[in-house]
Write a structure and sequence with these properties.
This protein is an alpha/beta fold and about 325 residues long. The chain is built from nine helices and 13 strands.
Length: about 325
């Protein structure tokens, strides 16, 4: 049974998905990196090994996400792609006809404009936490709420409480004031969802044609209050959360590995599940070839260099050396 592995490693979570050659999902793993992306990938690989169907063989691997080069070195990837390409490919497979992708993760957010089966435009926010899932996580923690309960309660809100969303610090101060004024907690929680959506639309979505159908991806799409806020603020009910929305980037990476395998027809670079137990080490050095003095990251195992990346140019390549 030919299977393909997609790995999406971001700043907060690591997602691993195994798909069949036709794109159907055979299994997925979703876990927090806890600041240790290599350990998270190794743990995820171990869980993938357990859920692999009997007779399944990994024929290709794709990686994506902000730590895609690191993940590629750990697992042995055939394809390394950015999040825009990966999420677009997966969306066109699982939500054909979509024209806009709204994606909000733990530490970044993005909008991807699809037209006629390709990416027409995109924008990302990687700077302001007020436009990402960490904004809601922080407020839920402060209120001693599980993030799942946060979304359910926000979706039940009967009123509207406006809370500023331009800055996490200001939002927290505004939320405290609304509590002291006696507003219902459900309404305050929904006000926080609306604040995040306003921030997203005014920053990430500024100047973009957000046309329907719209798909909402990322872990934040689990939050029903956020889905409701997007529908209300965009003035359309055509905002959907597709199956596997939380691992769509990993699915896209796996689909790209399928495409690459069909074109390449060579053996996969997958390092086998033995990568779960390997002892990797990370180091860096300053490139002095030009005045940019780029910091180059390097990953090694058993004294051998697996890959280097991080420069502004391609001198060190983003190609794995092992």
């Amino acid at each position: 049974m030919d299977l393909y592995l997609g790995v999406d490693v971001g700043s907060v979570t690591a997602k691993l998905v195994v798909i069949h050659v036709n794109g159907d999902v055979a299994g997925s793993v979703y876990l927090r990196t806890c600041g240790k992306p290599i350990a998270a990938v190794q743990q995820g690989l171990g869980r993938v090994r357990e859920l692999l169907p009997e007779g399944g063989i990994i024929r290709g691997v794709g990686t994506t996400g902000s730590a895609r080069y690191l993940a590629a070195a750990v697992v042995g990837a055939d394809v390394v792609k950015n999040e825009i390409s990966s999420q677009a490919v997966a969306t066109m497979r699982y939500a054909p006809g979509a024209q806009t992708i709204v994606e909000i993760g733990g530490q970044d957010s993005k909008v991807i404009i699809l037209r006629r089966g390709s990416v027409a435009d995109f924008a990302m926010n990687t700077v302001c936490a007020a436009g990402t899932g960490s904004f809601l996580d922080h407020q839920a923690s402060r209120l001693n709420l599980e993030i799942g309960d946060f979304g359910d309660r926000a979706a039940r809100s009967k009123g509207s409480v406006r809370i500023t969303g331009q800055c996490t610090v200001f939002a927290e101060s505004d939320m405290i004031q609304k509590q002291q004024m006696g507003h219902a907690m459900d309404d305050i929680l929904y006000g926080l969802c609306q604040a995040l959506v306003r921030n997203y639309l005014h920053n990430v979505g500024a100047g973009k044609e957000i046309a329907s159908p719209i798909v909402f991806l990322g872990g934040v799409a689990f939050n029903r209050g956020m889905v409701r806020a997007f529908r209300e603020m965009l003035g359309t009910e055509d905002v959907s959360v597709p199956p596997h929305h939380e691992v769509m980037g990993a699915i896209g990476a796996a689909l790209l590995a399928v495409e690459d395998g069909a074109r390449r027809g060579a053996e996969t670079k997958f390092r086998s599940f033995g990568a779960c137990e390997a002892a990797y080490s990370i180091s860096s050095f300053e490139c002095s070839v030009c005045s940019s003095l780029c910091e180059i990251a390097q990953i090694s195992v058993d004294g051998g260099v697996l890959g280097r990346w991080g420069g502004r140019c391609d001198l060190w390549g983003r190609v794995l050396t092992g």
